[in-house]
Amino acid sequence: MKLFTNIYDYIIDLAHRENVTRYLYGLSFIESIFFPIPPDVLLAPIALTKKYNWIKIAFYTTFYSVVGGLVGYVIGLYLYELSILNSIIKESVFLEVKNLFDKHGVTIMIIAGFSPLPFKAFTITAGYMSLPIILFIASSFIGRSLRFFLVAALFHYLGESIANKIKKYFEYIGWTVVIIFLFIIFSKYF
Q1: CA distance 63 to 71
Q2: Which residues of 85-101 are buried (b: 16+ CB within 10 A; e: fewer)?
Q3: Which of 29, 86, 98, 189 is deepest in the core (most CB within 10 A)?
Q4: Which pLDDT value is given to residue 167?
Q5: Could you tell me if 66 and 32 are in contact, meaning their C-beta atoms sit under 8 angstroms apart?
Q6: How far apart are CA 77 and CA 123, in angstroms?
Q7: Other CB atoms within 10 Å distance of the CB of residue 182
Q8: Using CA atoms, how far apart are residues 156 and 189, in angstroms rounded to an integer?
Q9: Band of residue 93 on the pLDDT scale cut at 50, 70, 90
Q10: Using CA atoms, how far apart are residues 100 and 122, in angstroms rounded to an integer?
Q11: What CA–CA distances, in Å, run from 76 to 22, 28, 49?
């Protein structure tokens, strides 16, 4: 059974569809607030198609991610005490991120924006900690720009060779991630 290869093929097919950028920008927006799937999953294959200007899609992916981050910031600023937030960000994660903010300041927003860490945890925590809004926007824009422009450029210019390697090993990568995830769950609860 080629479960992950089928998912890969579906995403590549989706990247060729009309108006796919709307999905990309929507994904960028919601990922900064609550959604677990990063926009890179769609950004990379869209840049690979060369159907769109990679600079433009990287910019708008960044823009909508930062706007979504502002929503996360407002949630953290005004609503963090509500129990509904536990479904968005666990208290243990919040405390870890808060410690990172205490230790590294605004630099952690740039790192979080660039890294595969869950950006939503940082946007909500930044709001809770009342990080100055200008610093929040600037650091989010820098981190997200670095990440999304890098992904878009790599897949635009080196896409075919990267895509072929990813597709070749995608099934193994997918199952490895599932096994690691199950191991983490198992070791945490059993």
Answers
A1: 13
A2: beebbeeebbeebeebb
A3: 29
A4: 73
A5: yes
A6: 10
A7: 10
A8: 42
A9: confident
A10: 9
A11: 26, 19, 37
Q: Alpha-carbon distance 183 to 83, whole Å?
A: 28
Residues 143, 111: contact at Cβ < 8 Å?
yes
Going by C-alpha positions, the residue among 156, 149, 148 that lies closest to residue 119 is 148
Residue 45, domain extent: 3-159
Residue 167 in domain: no
Q: Per the structure, how many domains does the chain have?
A: 1
Q: How far apart are the first and last CA of the chain?
A: 29
Cβ neighbour number for residue 128 with a 10 Å cutoff: 22
| Residue percentage of the chain with pLDDT more than 90 | 51
CA distance 88 to 128: 14
Place of tokens 């926009």: 39
What would the pLDDT profile of 133-156 be if each residue is shown by its tens digit?
A: 999 999 999 999 999 999 999 999
Q: Could you tell me the pLDDT band of residue 84, with boundaries at 50, 70 and 90?
A: low
**Does 19 map to a domain?**
yes
CA distances from 93 to 7, 86, 87, 175, 190 (A): 29, 10, 12, 25, 20
pLDDT tens digit string along 30-51?
A: 999 988 889 998 999 999 888 8
Give me the mean pLDDT over the 61-77 stretch: 96
* Residue 178 covered by a domain: no
